Structure formats: C-alpha cells, structure tokens
UniProtKB/TrEMBL annotation:
GO terms for molecular function: heme binding; iron ion binding; monooxygenase activity; oxidoreductase activity, acting on paired donors, with incorporation or reduction of molecular oxygen. This is Cytochrome P450. It is a single-pass membrane protein. The keyword Oxidoreductase applies. Coiled coil: none annotated. GO terms for cellular component: membrane. It comes from Stephania japonica. The lineage of its organism: Eukaryota, Viridiplantae, Streptophyta, Embryophyta, Tracheophyta. Pfam families: p450 (PF00067). Keywords: Membrane, Oxidoreductase, Transmembrane, Transmembrane helix.
Length: 66
C-alpha cells in the first residue's frame, strides 16, 4: 500500500488521490487521444467488467484547442 493502512494511514491520502484525479482529468480534457496509424486495440476479457489489453497501450496526444 502506497499510503499505509488502518490507523497509521497517511493523512494526505485523500489529497494525493484528488490531485492525481484532477491531473488525469486535465490531460483527458485538453488533448485528443488516438492510437498511432489507426491501429486496433486487442483486448481480452478480464475479471468482472474490466478488459485487459494484450499489448502495451501507446497513444498519440494532440493538443485540443477550445
């Protein structure tokens, strides 16, 4: 566990998780994302509702102008 657990958990855990969430939201909002050369993503079934990629995910980010 990165933030520890139970009684001795990090008091900044909520803040740290929030900062990561906002940073990810900003990246998703300000860039258009696509796979290189229009390739298809190969996905396999995982546990429950998740899907797992067969290969490493490589994306091209293009600045999105508002």
């Amino acid at each position: 566990m990165a933030f520890g657990g139970e009684r001795r958990s990090c008091p900044g855990m909520g803040f740290g998780m929030g900062v990561v969430e906002v940073a990810l939201a900003n990246l998703l909002y300000h860039f258009d994302w696509e796979v290189p050369n229009g390739e298809e993503l190969e996905m396999v079934k995982g546990l429950g509702l998740q899907r797992i990629g067969k290969a490493r995910l490589i994306l091209l980010a293009t600045p999105h102008h508002i």
